Amino acid sequence: MKRHRNSSHWIAAAAFAVACFPLAAMAAIHVKLAVNDDTSLSVSSSSSPCQGEPIDVICVAKGSSPNLFFELDNACEAGGPQYGLEQIRIAMAPKQWPSSSNPLPQYVVGDFNADPDSGVINLASGNGSDNSKSSSRIKFKDKNQHTEPYTVFYEITAQQCNGSGTIVLDPSVRNGGK
């Protein structure tokens, strides 16, 4: 195998990239979802659970800014769950969703690209974000830029493929801060 004469430059560049951009900052968080008896949505696995908390509580490390992927395998396909992922929204307290009289703080709106009055995360393509949605996956960026740690509570809604009903999951995300 021929060795390139500038290979030491590539090694130095790779070391610089790892030192300046820690792996935690580049890593994505994957959360696998499941439909239970056609009546509820649950987390079956998470790449970033909070130690000592239920599996559906997600920890975002201090200084990281990950993409979060919520995935429901084979959604609306033959043999798969007959639900598709619809939306995700966030709040500052469990089941106390934002409103025009009680909007989300601006740092949360900025971190999650969420509507301040509803808490719904903007998943539309072309909005300048890295967010997206399909029936089997919701992807969004958690910028985690607030200087102090904070917790938001999230609600994922899945709709029956025939449009007749919905189920939800509503645990929390613990942001470690900038």
Q: Which terms summarize this structure?
A:
5-stranded mixed sheet; alpha+beta; 178 residues; 14% helix
β-strand amount: 25-35%
Distance between the termini: 44 Å
Largest sheet: 5 strands, mixed
Order of helices and strands: HHEEEEEHEEEEE
* Structural domain count: 1
Mean pLDDT over the residues:
82
Number of helices: 3
Give me the count of strands. 10
Q: Taking Cα atoms only, what radius of gyration do you get, to the nearest Å?
A: 19 Å
Molecular shape:
globular
Strand order of the largest sheet: 2-1-4-7-6
Structural class: alpha+beta
Low-confidence stretches: 1-26
Portion in helices: 10-25%
Describe what you observe in this structure:
This protein has three helices and ten strands, in the order ααβββββαβββββ. With 178 residues, the protein is of the alpha+beta class. The strands form two sheets. The chain has a five-stranded mixed beta sheet with strand order 2-1-4-7-6, with no helix packed on it. Strands 3, 5, 8, 9 and 10 form a five-stranded mixed beta sheet that branches. It is globular, with a radius of gyration of 19 Å.
List the helices and strands and how they pair.
Elements: H1 7-20, H2 23-26, E1 29-36, E2 40-46, E3 58-60, E4 67-71, E5 83-91, H3 106-112, E6 132-133, E7 137-141, E8 150-160, E9 166-169, E10 172-175
Parallel strand pairs: 1-4, 3-10
Antiparallel strand pairs: 1-2, 4-7, 5-8, 6-7, 8-9, 8-10
What would you say about this model in short?
Helix content is 14%, strand content 33%. With 178 residues, the chain is an alpha+beta fold. Strand 6 (132-133) and strand 7 form a beta hairpin.
